[in-house]
Amino acid sequence: MKGSTVLPAANTAPKTQQYEGLSRDELLQLYRTMLLSRRLDDKELQLKKGSKSFFQISGAGHEAILVAAGMQLKSGRDWFFPYYRDRALCLTLGLTPYEMLLAAVGAKADPISGGRQMPAHWSKPDLHLVSASSAVTTQCLHAVGCAEASQFYLQFPNSVAQASAGSEGDVVYVSLGDGSTSEGEFWESLNTACTRRLPVVFLVEDNGYAISVPVEIQTPGGDIARLVSAFPGLEVISVDGTDALASYAAMRRGLAYARSGRGPVLVKANVVRLYSHSQTDDERHYKSDAERDEEQTRDPLDRFSAFLTREQLCDDNTLAWIASEVDDEIQDAADRALAAAAPDRSTVLDYVYSPDVDPASDAFDVPGTPEGDPITMVAAINRTLKDEMTRNPRLVVFGEDVADCSRGEALSTVKGKGGVFGATLGLQRAFGRERVFNSPLAEANIVGRAIGMAVRGLKPVVEIQFFDYIWPAMMQIRDELTMLRYRSNNAYSCPVVIRAPIGGYLRGGSLYHSQSGESIFAHCPGLRIAYPSDADDAAGLLRTAIRCDDPVLFLEHKHLYRQIYSKSIYRGPDYQIPFGRACIRRDGTDVVVITWGALVQRTLLAAERAAQRGISVMVLDLRTLAPYDWSAVAEAVSRISRVVVAHEDQLTCGFGAEVAARIADELFEYLDAPVKRVGALDCPVAYHPDLEEAILPQTDDVLQVITTVCEY
Ligand SMILES: Cc1ncc(C[n+]2csc(CCOP(=O)(O)OP(=O)(O)O)c2C)c(N)n1
Q1: Are 445 and 484 in a shared domain?
Q2: What does the mean pLDDT of the chain come to?
Q3: Which of 115, 428, 478, 699 keeps 20 to 30 A from 342, CA to CA?
Q4: Which of 536, 569, 602 is the last residue of a domain?
């Protein structure tokens, strides 16, 4: 245990055998860490009341199970995805009170997030403590992905990234509260942990409440251990988490199971939440005095100090000495943290994206060598994935139906599915089941696991089967994928690529297979967005997406997958296109249409017809939306003065609104006409082709707006 001190001598000889094998010093150290955690909570509450810090959430009442766990987990070897009540665990693993208090005051020197994330969301790379968000339960899927990465590296030791390796027997710890088990991601993580028999240790800290909602409203029957007991391969252990020695024994049993490779374990620890949910909550509004009094009788610190004196392992003087020593340590840490400088305002935009790899740079401008006949966009994507998998042994592909093989058939004999659009066809045959595999039908599962893998240096390129079904993964995308680097002040990153077939014009795709919505993701800082309009761009941009260091949403228009007009010659395994470089598809002088995706071809057809009317149209294909090529837009607008923005997505709040607003703001003096937009009607895409045609923007619509702008 870190931070241990020399403890006073015992009055009597230790009786170690009966105390789970722990020596007197270890028992006193266990007590000391529990107390340190509690007193730190108290100090932070004091700082908050004095407006010296800005948020506080405590672990009071959870300390016994957490120190018992931390003593047996291996800091810097096992991996950790704790939640906000896990102060005592993190202290046991080696995070210091000073580091915690730097986080509380949000200091520049806060090693956890540089003052960006709320306190109690601990992390530290050398301890393998992974930065946490505040979205409850998302971490369960990261833990699963992390365990999968461990397995991967054991199987392919030559592919190991940085110091990400591991050893046989390492486990991944993840914790959550009882209320958080109601989230689907908890069940999705158990699903995969059990299916793949992963060494994940789930600790459910059941304090009976989720803020004010009692456990019986969250969990049928009120006992999560009972509910999960049918999961195959899952070892389920229930323990009184306020009893330090019982907790120690339960964790020992659980860890032995997980370390032996038999599968995951879930320890359900009954604890008490001795303080309100957080400093903004007042539990007296929903807990009776009698209930609160009863909870006090289960205070793990009181129970353990009573045990220590009862067993004559120490006396009251020793406990007092420990307490004063703990208080001194905390006071010293608090004095130093309060003297620490605040973060610099000028740094607020640091680490939204990778500071090391800029996908818009010339380094990604690699022309490649065209070879062979033109191929479709889906074939170009498939070839790019194959080439990148050959180049990077850490690249893994997974998603719904992406595998060639459904069960255990010999890969050589199977014809294969390879994705509902065939984009991943043959990848599993070529690279094996460990690198290409099906996920359960659960989109948060796909993205959450990918994040956990990417934290460990794998390169997940995952498929969301239809953009229409990306929404269950939205929390993972918006709160985790895009924010991990930012919230950890660049200590962690997860450069996952999410491929998502998008868009309509399918005749029959209807409401749930025709959606657009790229603007929603353009509103997520930290995410790159590519949206190619032909096979050539798909290959060049996908390669850049894979090789860059940021998360990328790679949008593949379903209708363009197999169109003849979107075919191109493949330019080999090095071809890359930098992000943020628009492409002039047709030059012109009277009006510029800024567009992307499926509207590129429709705009080109409109431009041809406009030419017959004597209107010269420039067609500018943005190709990526985050970043997008503002300088190409500015250059075109300043030269041409009349602008249309055309996209398939609904008009209201479509990405065109952003482009148009910026043109109005920064290029107003160049304009000879209002900036016009073309987009879908503000309604879902209906089934009958006539309805679909009326809803989605057509060539005629683009032509009409071009004409209007020219006539202004
Ligand atoms: C996804 C999500 N929904 C809601 C919240 C707001 N919230 C924060 S903590 C919390 C209660 C969590 O209760 P539980 O899982 O039992 O853990 P405890 O706080 O009791 O330890 C809620 C609703 C959140 N952070 N994340």
Answers
A1: yes
A2: 95
A3: 478
A4: 569
What residue type is 12 in one-letter code? T
| In a shared domain, residues 88 and 220 | yes
Same domain, 499 and 620: no
Query: What pLDDT digit, counting tens, does each position of 652-682 carry?
Result: 999 999 999 999 999 999 999 999 999 999 9
Question: Residue 11: what pLDDT?
Answer: 47
* Alpha-carbon 638 to chain mean position: 40
Going by C-alpha positions, the residue among 34, 90, 266 that lies closest to residue 171 is 266
Kindly report, residue by residue over 33-47, the tens digit of the pLDDT: 999 999 999 999 999
| Tally of domains in the chain | 3
Question: What's the pTM value of the predicted model, to 2 decimals?
Answer: 0.96
> 62 catalytic, yes or no?
no
pLDDT band at residue 415 under the 50/70/90 scheme: confident
Q: Give the residue, by CA position, lying nearest to ligand 1 atom 18.
A: 177
87, 136, 223, 477: which to mutate for ligand 1, most atoms within 8 A of CB? Answer: 136
**Does residue 343 fall inside a structural domain?**
no
Q: Which domain holds residue 486?
A: 362-569
For residue 15, being part of any structural domain is answered with no
Q: Are residues 429 and 478 in the same domain?
A: yes
Ligand 1 proximity of 209 Cβ (cutoff 6 Å): yes
Q: Quickly count: other Cβ atoms within 10 Å of residue 196's Cβ.
A: 17
Closest CA to 492 of 124, 135, 200: 124
Marked catalytic residue, from 62, 513, 557, 559: 513
Pocket flag, ligand 1, residue 175 (CB < 6 Å): no
Identify the three-state secondary structure at position 65.
helix
Quote the distance between the C-alpha of residue 158 and its chain's center: 26
